[in-house]
Amino acid sequence: MNREVLFSREDSWFFRGISMLLVVASHFAGWWITAAGENRILYAGTRMGVYGVASFFLLSAYGLAKSAGEKKVGASFFWRRVKSVYLPYLIFAFLIELYAGGAWNLERIVHVLSGKEYWFITNILLFYLAFFLIWRFVGKKFRIWVLGAVIILYSVWLFYDGRQSFWYLSNLAFWLGVLAARYEKQICGWFRKGYPLQVAAWVVLLIGIAAWGIHAKYVPVGFPMELYSRAAAASLWAVSLMWFAPLRPKKEKLMIFIGKHSLTIYLLHTFFYHRLTEWLDVDYRIRFLLSLPLMFILAPALDILVQKGIQKAESFLKRK
């Protein structure tokens, strides 16, 4: 199979859409367990979010590294990432806090600014900052390896700090995304050698490792083994997207649409569900159904409005 790039822009949006569905499914499974009790299928559903986040990290890092190349990056490079992730987050986070009401103080403001309620935002912004500083001040030969060391050390610190496992299980995928961009030519060359067999091997490997992570929940195998299996499965899932990209349906539009607005869906989907819980005293299954149009129609509409507002504000400031 002849390929020059691992992911086109459309590929990236498509897989972001799939990843967003995995994240939403994991939260739905958790809410369902709270309402109706746990079983193996629902437990497996709660694990899907790790795979979704790993995909986001890999695709974001791949695009970041492709954009930067080997050159030193400037402040405008970092600003573009802040504008696309942090500003929308701030707008929606402060609106949610205003809805919640209560007194504002320095601690609450810092809490919102730091993204503590949205661990994905905290991690991705730290990874962006690390990438920017390393590509700015570290020599070309060492950049990738310094970034990998930073991500691994940060993840180890999160573990020993007692953070929940979702804070660190997917982090390695960001480094793998940078590696994919760096060695893209070699990887594409490798795809020409037995591509169908490679895809089959990845599928079998992923099923095996993911099943082991679920199995470990019900048949105790020791804490480290469960943790390692889940982290390995998340990283391998993200890497496997490179193999599955050519199989993407080229005329598919829905996943691309969801992918383009995935950040806002991520920021608002739990808010919408819990507000419906407050407003409607109905069966939880009805709340699930009612929350879907809010997540996948209203959230993208709000995203479009916010993005247009940011663009107009930026244009106005440039004229000044």
Strand content: under 5%
Estimated structural class: mainly alpha
DSSP helix count? 14
- Shape, principal axes of CA atoms: globular
The helix/strand order is HHHHHHHHHHHHHH
Using only CA atoms, what is the Rg?
20 Å
Residue windows where pLDDT falls under 50 for at least 5 positions:
218-222
Summarize the biggest pleated sheet: none
What distance separates the N and C termini?
A: 51 Å
Mean of residue pLDDT?
A: 86
The beta-strand count equals 0
Portion in helices: over 70%
Would you kindly provide a written description of the structure presented here, covering whatever features stand out?
The protein is mainly alpha-helical and about 325 residues long. Helix content is about 80%, strand content about 0%. The longest helix is centred in the last third of the chain and has 36 residues, at about 285-320. The termini are far apart.
Give keywords.
320 residues, 14 helices, 0% strand, mainly alpha
Write the layout of secondary structure elements.
Elements: H1 9-36, H2 40-46, H3 48-68, H4 75-100, H5 106-113, H6 119-137, H7 143-160, H8 172-182, H9 184-191, H10 195-218, H11 223-244, H12 254-260, H13 262-279, H14 284-319
Helix pairs in contact: 1-2, 1-3, 1-12, 1-13, 3-6, 3-8, 3-11, 4-6, 4-13, 4-14, 6-7, 7-8, 8-11, 10-11, 13-14
